[in-house]
Design the sequence.
């Protein structure tokens, strides 16, 4: 049975540190597949203008392709080069909930995330995502500082 | 972008230095604008509100009520039977997780609501109750409940016949469903009706979605800070709206969109508190409502007067049958158009049955309307009920709330400004969609409409309530004439979607998703 690890990326150095750790871990485990995931913070309960709604589908596609291009594809390429089985994905939603549901879907054995995102205000935000995840995840969570 | 900011600051500075000097001139400028406006819109208004021959009942009210009744029966009281399902849909129970990031049912509903919850709920209701008495409330609630079926029909069609463009954007609304739907069924006249609708939609956007909002916002502000020329409020509002819809300063709209629901909850909560504080009068208030509904209690026009006012205000406030909501709801992500119909049921309910009723109850309970103790009827002067302080429109609502919370007019002013602003933003979009349907897409044509829209904000703030509300009503109801005609021809399409959905829901083919 291939062990699956879910790694939450944030597009910053902090996410990269989580990814390095997961890479080392995969090496130790042997038969392992890493799923790198980038979650775009989104809620179905937000309030928008009619114009935003009309353009939402287009924006969503743009957000996904930007995330793939900037964060996921480079990460996947780097891991593949080192001979690690890897898949990438981008999802919209609440960071903690999304990472958790991904790990349930693929039956991951643990989630690896950074403690908080590098950089000013984002630290506050991602930090609480990690805290949320730790408190609500249904699989073990490894927090990389 | 910088140039826009600079010119706005320049305009603002100029206006503020010159204002005291030309204050006298300004008052008569208001009057001039008002007179010109009343002259131009008079014939249109008279036509729309012409009474059915031999009665004093405007044909347009009959048109809306009959439509709502027909749809209610044709869809077997969908507003009652599928209310719970609508809530379930909004909660996201039937939303595919793979659609995360697209427009959710909740977002479509919230957007549409922010367009309909506006001054109609606060000031329009005051006008209705001020003319038709508390009895108008009963008819307003009834119209709201029946109107849910009209919204159901139009919003389903809005999603079904929307245009999905290659770049991923979406356009939907009555002009699309009438032209496409008629063509699909081989009916003539679709294009003509669609064009007619677009024209009225533009007028409606300029009237009810714009002028009325600016007008009553100004009334509330001047009620607090003291009288000053309306065009000043107009210019301020117009500048902010301009910054959002032309300058693309989305942050303003985003803040408003977040604050408006909060203000809505605050408003309803305050109303509930006032009603509960006067719990001993609740029975009396409802008594007044029922008595007034069927006897008029001395109001101008009696029971029919109350009925007309109630129906008018409900229609203007929740826009059921008008078609504007179909434009807002058309952007939702769903494979089943009928689901958006269900979701839209909640709109007239929240708007009219909840919020408008709250306003009407507060006005009634607070005793702002003067009763003649001898007859038990309302003292009527010049077609209106006499009020304490001779207030009408938003001032009447303000006074009603002030009777319990003396500081509330200030909160109401903030709420009014925000509601007015969010309604203007929404209607500028609806009007723009109609405009581009007629004149094609393109930056220049869009800019032309947006500038016209902003100019009308100033006119609306300057004119007096009478001509503005008449024109606003007339324009919006004109939209309903065309839209409902379209709905009559296309309702069978909605029926087949409805039947198919019901079957698949019952068979389990339409699944709930775990959260």
Sequence:
């Amino acid at each position: 049975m291939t062990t699956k690890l879910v790694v939450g990326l944030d597009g910053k150095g902090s996410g990269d540190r989580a990814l390095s750790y997961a890479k080392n871990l995969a090496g130790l485990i042997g038969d392992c597949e890493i799923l790198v995931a980038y979650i775009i913070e989104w809620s179905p309960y937000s309030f928008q203008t009619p114009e935003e709604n009309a353009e939402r589908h287009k924006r969503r596609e743009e957000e996904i392709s930007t995330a793939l291009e900037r964060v996921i594809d480079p990460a996947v390429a780097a891991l593949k080069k080192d001979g690690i089985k890897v898949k990438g994905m981008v999802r919209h939603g609440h960071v903690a909930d999304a990472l958790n549901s991904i790990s349930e879907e693929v039956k991951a054995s643990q989630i690896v995330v950074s403690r908080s995102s590098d950089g000013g205000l984002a630290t506050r935000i991602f930090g609480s995502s990690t805290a949320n995840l730790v408190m609500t995840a249904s699989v073990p969570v490894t927090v990389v500082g | 972008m910088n140039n826009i900011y600079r010119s706005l600051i320049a305009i603002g500075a100029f206006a503020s230095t010159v204002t005291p000097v030309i204050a006298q001139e300004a008052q008569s400028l208001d009057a001039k604008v008002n007179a010109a406006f009343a002259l131009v819109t008079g014939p249109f208004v008279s036509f729309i509100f012409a009474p059915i021959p031999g009665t004093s009942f405007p044909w347009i009210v009959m048109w809306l009520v009959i439509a709502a009744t027909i749809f209610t029966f044709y869809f077997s009281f969908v507003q009652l039977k599928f209310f719970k399902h609508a809530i379930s849909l909004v909660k996201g129970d039937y939303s595919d997780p793979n659609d995360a990031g697209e427009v959710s049912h909740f977002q479509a509903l919230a957007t549409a609501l922010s367009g309909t919850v506006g001054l109609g709920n606060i000031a329009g209701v005051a006008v209705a109750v001020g003319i038709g008495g508390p009895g108008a409330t009963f008819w307003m609630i009834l119209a709201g409940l029946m109107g849910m079926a009209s919204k159901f029909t139009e919003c389903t069609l809005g999603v079904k016949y929307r245009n999905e463009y290659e770049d991923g954007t979406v356009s939907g609304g009555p002009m699309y469903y009438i032209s496409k739907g008629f063509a699909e069924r081989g009916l003539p006249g679709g294009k003509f009706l669609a064009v007619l609708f677009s024209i009225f939609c533009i007028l409606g956007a300029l009237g009810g979605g714009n002028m009325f909002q600016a007008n009553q916002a100004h009334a509330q502000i001047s009620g607090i800070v003291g009288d000053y020329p309306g065009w000043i409020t107009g210019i301020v509002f117009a500048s902010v709206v301009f910054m959002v819809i032309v300058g693309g300063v989305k942050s303003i709209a985003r803040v408003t969109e977040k604050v408006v629901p909060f203000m809505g909850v605050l408003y309803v909560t305050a109303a509930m508190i006032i009603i509960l504080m006067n719990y001993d009068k609740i029975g009396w208030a409802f008594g007044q409502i029922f008595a007034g509904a069927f006897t008029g209690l001395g109001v101008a026009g009696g029971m029919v007067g109350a009925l007309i006012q109630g129906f008018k205000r409900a229609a203007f406030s929740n826009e059921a049958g008008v078609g504007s909501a179909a434009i807002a709801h058309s952007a939702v992500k769903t494979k089943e158009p009928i689901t958006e119909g269900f979701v839209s049921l909640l709109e007239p309910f929240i708007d009219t049955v909840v919020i408008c009723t709250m306003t009407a109850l507060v006005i009634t309970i607070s005793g702002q309307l003067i009763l003649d103790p001898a007859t038990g009827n309302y003292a009527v002067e010049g077609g209106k009920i006499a009020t304490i302080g001779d207030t009408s429109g938003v001032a009447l609502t303000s006074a009603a709330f002030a009777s319990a919370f003396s500081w509330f007019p200030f909160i109401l002013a903030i709420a009014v400004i925000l509601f007015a602003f969010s309604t203007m933003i929404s209607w500028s979009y609806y009007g723009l969609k109609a405009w581009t349907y007629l004149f094609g897409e393109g930056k220049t044509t869009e800019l032309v409409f947006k500038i016209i829209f902003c100019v009308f904000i100033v006119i609306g703030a300057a004119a007096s309530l009478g001509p503005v509300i008449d024109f606003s009503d007339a324009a919006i109801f004109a939209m309903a004439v065309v839209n409902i005609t379209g709905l009559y021809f296309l309702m069978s399409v909605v029926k087949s979607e409805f039947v198919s959905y019901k079957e698949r829901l019952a068979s389990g083919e339409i699944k709930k998703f775990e959260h």
